[in-house]
Design goal:
single chain, about 300 residues, mainly alpha, 13 helices
């Protein structure tokens, strides 16, 4: 760990800590119930504004890594990206329970990258596993209800398995936190400690929204913009906006086709999470390819 890491907290760590503390203050003492429809609305707004842009820079990352050079390559990359996303949607439609379980597994690997430069690989994996498992341990019925909406009756089985994974991961997280505290890794302690408290207090969807939109997405965006030359950053911002709007247009079309006869909150939950799964798999595949090619995380 560098000197700057030990003396200055990353901006996303500070923002996440402040918002998480506010959420705990509002939700904890009074056990304020938050209707599912409100949670879904908050999650959707947060993902649209703060979450989607971090994946919208994938074409620039692919070009910078040499995956394509010309316009025809750009078209081919986008078609392949959409095809892989479509395969995820098909897998979810054919076998929603296993698709959900596999998505959770690969998400644990992907989210572990948030502590790439600060924790050992086994610590990162424990932290990411706890990140996903803690809500199922603290709020088993809420998570089971969410997974049932996403994957039918098989979702309850996945939720129960995740609950036990969460229990084991909590013990591992305690070890990671103790090690980080001993090494004076303040940002790690604040982030993982904040996630632990937030998972215990906040509804699972609000917990996930705060993590995904205030820690994971900003960290990835910041890493990409740091690697871009100053003259490229304006183009990056435009690309992020264009791809985000295109994704929203596609989601709106799916919503228009799916909403008739479906409960609004359930349809919204399915669109957000299954849509994230469809976009996350090609995003993660690209990140893995880039890391292996360049021997460094994006």
């Amino acid at each position: 760990m560098s000197v700057s890491e030990s003396t200055r907290l990353p901006a996303e760590t500070v923002i996440f800590a402040l918002v998480a503390a506010l959420a705990v203050g509002l939700l904890g003492p009074v056990s304020l119930p938050v209707p599912l429809a409100v949670q879904v609305a908050l999650l959707t707004a947060a993902v649209v504004i703060l979450g989607l842009p971090h994946g919208s820079l994938d074409p620039w990352i692919a070009r910078r890594a040499g995956l394509y050079r010309r316009s025809v390559g750009w078209i081919g990359f986008n078609l392949a990206y959409l095809a892989l996303a479509g395969l995820v949607l098909l897998a979810w439609w054919l076998s929603p329970g296993p698709a959900l379980a596999v998505f959770l597994l690969i998400s644990a690997w992907h989210f572990s990258g948030d502590w790439e430069d600060r924790l050992a690989p086994w610590q990162r994996l424990l932290a990411a596993t706890a990140l996903l498992g803690m809500p199922a341990w603290f709020h088993p019925q809420a998570v089971a209800d969410i997974f049932t909406v996403l994957s039918g009756s098989a979702g309850q089985v996945v939720a129960e398995g995740l609950r036990w994974v969460g229990m084991v991961a909590l013990a591992g997280l305690a070890v990671v936190l103790a090690t980080a505290a001993r090494h004076r890794q303040r940002s790690v302690v604040i982030e993982l400690g904040g996630l632990l408290i937030l998972a215990a207090v906040a509804p699972p969807l609000i917990y996930f929204a705060l993590y995904f939109c205030l820690l994971h997405s900003p960290r990835h965006l910041a890493a990409v913009f740091r690697r871009a030359a100053p003259k490229e950053r304006r183009r990056l911002a435009i690309d992020a906006l264009v791809y985000t709007l295109a994704t929203l247009a596609l989601a709106a079309l799916v919503a228009f086709l799916a909403l008739p006869g479906a409960e609004l909150s359930h349809a919204g939950l399915q669109i957000v999470f299954i849509g994230l799964a469809a976009l996350t798999v090609p995003h993660m595949a690209l990140m893995l390819w880039v890391e292996r090619r360049q021997a460094g995380p994006i």
